[in-house]
Specification:
This protein is an alpha+beta fold. The protein has ten helices and four strands. It is elongated and about 65 Å long.
Length: about 240
């Protein structure tokens, strides 16, 4: 049976986690602040399971020092929750993204050279460039302990070189502005927080997308390649929805 101290900590962690979620839902934060709150929310969701496991383990082993005392419980459970969240969120998932079988790391070619040159001009480390074996046209980026840009084979077959450069510039802008952190943190939220699924959480990324688009236009000195790339992708998706493929 769970003692009053453990029950109180479990309830408190759930209440604070829910409160943080509603702050995320109602407030606009910079990417780093957003990541901190999302990470805290997820860790607090892990905490009740760790507290229960710790209580059960202490009871089985008859270790009174880690059961029933609030200081000892927090001292044991919180680092465990932080370690678990860190390993899953910032090491395991990024490695899963980059090592799954359908992705290939590009080491040479015009796109690799373009990304390296632009990264140097932007004063940032060049991200890994991964080709995804998928006919659907798309591209995305994320930034954790590693930075990477992913694009499908389908998008390279659909777009011209200048349009593809616009797409790559758009993703580089997300990495530079750290808005990819916000996207990645939203992914973590949807993966590990049942609350976000129940309440249909959605982050409005209009501002981040506009900043990335403006960067593309500034570098290419025109918006025609970006607009034509978006139009082709939209037309492809419409044909898929209509059953043309």
């Amino acid at each position: 049976m769970i003692d009053h101290t453990t029950a109180f900590l479990i309830m408190a962690s759930v209440v604070v986690s829910v409160a943080i979620f509603f702050i995320l839902k109602k407030s606009y934060l910079n990417p780093k602040g957003r990541l901190v709150l999302i990470y805290t929310h997820i860790v607090l969701l892990f905490l009740p399971f760790i507290l229960y496991s710790l209580h059960a383990g202490c009871s089985m082993l008859c270790i009174q020092s880690c059961s029933g005392d609030i200081t000892h419980l927090i001292g044991y459970a919180l680092p465990s929750a932080l370690l678990t969240g860190s390993l899953i969120g910032f090491i395991a998932i990024p490695r899963l993204y980059t090592t799954s079988g359908r992705k290939t790391l590009l080491k040479n070619g015009w796109m690799t050279d373009f990304v390296k040159n632009m990264s140097g001009t932007m004063g940032m480390k060049s991200p890994g460039l991964y080709s995804v074996d998928d006919a659907k046209p798309y591209a995305f980026s994320f930034r954790s302990y590693i930075s990477a840009i992913f694009f499908s084979v389908g998008i390279t077959e659909l777009l011209s070189r200048q349009e593809m450069k616009a797409v790559l510039l758009h993703e580089l802008a997300h990495l530079k502005n750290k808005s990819s952190i916000a996207k990645y943190s939203d992914t973590l939220l949807r993966m590990f927080s049942p609350i976000s699924l129940l309440l249909r959480f959605h982050h409005d990324n209009t501002m981040e997308e506009k900043r990335a688009d403006n960067f593309v236009i500034e570098i290419q000195r025109t918006d025609k390649h970006l607009k034509s790339a978006k139009r082709k992708i939209d037309e492809f998706e419409e044909m898929m929805n209509d059953g043309a493929f």
